[in-house]
């Protein structure tokens, strides 16, 4: 029962994370599921659904096809749609039912690629992980399969170019928020070569190997950053360039370019170690960067509670991964000042001061205007 939720919602699932990460890249993303995953995605998780077209499809898996293992219908439907639409790539995302059936997605991807001539890959989702896992693996595939090493193409003219990795509406909301982050970097002389993956097209992302350095703005971008370090030897820095931390991040980017070090985590440097005054809840890089900015500007000790899996390496000494509603409520019982999505308020102490920062991956479109 410790894994049940009775008051707060759960975070966006890995399948929606894949769709969100690839939404603007001109590919075709297919969820293999009866229809439930698609309805959750387009009615709750995707704020661009009514304003911007994308090739997001559901396979319409039937009970009979699931029981009989009829992969041929799945393959033929995708091939027919792809021959008409000619997407840049095809991405397959699994859901709980094909996961239980043991559907061989890598093999199906190879069959579809051979049949259509269109690059096809699968992302091993099953609806049991959170969005960081799904979106991160989707961008990792894009980095591994489509970004060329800088020696294979003309180097960009800028000596201060950076790729912004891990940018999706699930963490950052509307495009104007992303534009603000880019402006914060521009202010310190950095040219944002590509943004993974909002506001840029697939062709722009393919030139990412020309950048001098990568900036991992959320946990979603970490897998892609590691691939680009391996394949293109581009160093990476971890941190969200909010207004209080942009200068520190700029210095870290310069050091990474100069020393060609693999990685540096900006928001974990020089964190205060006194008794916690402010508790932040959410994705570790964005909230960790906000916590570091608060400490820098106001001198108030902070901690981050992270409700997402596989994020331990992105947390500081006083921060903590907290999974489940009951565990989160226990961690918050003595908190005095809390910064979190509005839907966390019901499990916070009545006498605490609560500051709202809506998180699309948690509350969907409910507070998008905020």
Automatic annotation (TrEMBL):
<dbReference type="Pfam" id="PF00148">
    <property type="entry name" value="Oxidored_nitro"/>
</dbReference>
<protein>
    <submittedName>
        <fullName>Nitrogenase component 1</fullName>
    </submittedName>
</protein>
<feature type="domain" description="Nitrogenase/oxidoreductase component 1">
    <location>
        <begin position="28"/>
        <end position="240"/>
    </location>
</feature>
<dbReference type="InterPro" id="IPR000510">
    <property type="entry name" value="Nase/OxRdtase_comp1"/>
</dbReference>
<dbReference type="InterPro" id="IPR052673">
    <property type="entry name" value="Ni-siroh_cyclase_CfbD"/>
</dbReference>
